[in-house]
Amino acid sequence: MSDQQKKNAGEAAAAHVEAGMVVGLGTGSTAAWFVKALAARNLPDLRCVPTSERTADLARELGLTLSTLEDTPRIDLTVDGADEIGPGLALIKGGGAALLREKLVWEASSRCICIADAAKVVPVLGTFPLPIEVVAFGHKTTANRIADVLADHDIPMPARVRQADRGLIRTDGGNLIYDAACKVINDPARLAADLKSLTGVVEHGLFLDLTDLAIIGTDAGFETINP
Ligand SMILES: O=C[C@H](O)[C@H](O)[C@H](O)COP(=O)(O)O
User: Largest CB tally within 10 Å, which of 8, 26, 112, 183?
Assistant: First the structure.
């Protein structure tokens, strides 16, 4: 993990934003560099839709004009980080528990740019535990259903509920996160569909066929990957 690489990626992505755009603001340490670089450009008539309360706080602090998906349902460009970037720009996201709002914003966007440091690029998805957002009510029974799906995908370990010192982590929407230590995800599309079909699962961190461009920070600058 390199902060300089994240910064370089965030700054390169900010150059893709034009005056008057509606911009989706991702969540996480890399997205924060983008938000800072975007604010520094001081472009006129921007409206920004944040994907988390954390990002909203940062953007507000930096003087960016915020909007919501309700007020601006069509987003021109979203820039966001990732936990893993696999072949075809298939992503794992949600390490910061923002996956649901992120996916809502990504899917409402004409264009999505993923920004990351070089360590996020992997030959196969699954080393980073896959976050799965689950409704709190009855979550242990939902976890059993998730375990059955994972077993069907040759993933023997059940997903574990995410905890902090103060107790279970809650998302901005009040849900819980289960993390699945997949190790290798052989068929991301089938796993995504199977998880999504479960009652109690709100969303999962597989972002497939949503990324138009990845900007990978290097120590000296950045490289790009097209899908
Ligand atoms: O929920 C969090 C998001 O999906 C983040 O974009 C992702 O976890 C990457 O975060 P970072 O840039 O801090 O590695």
Answer: 26
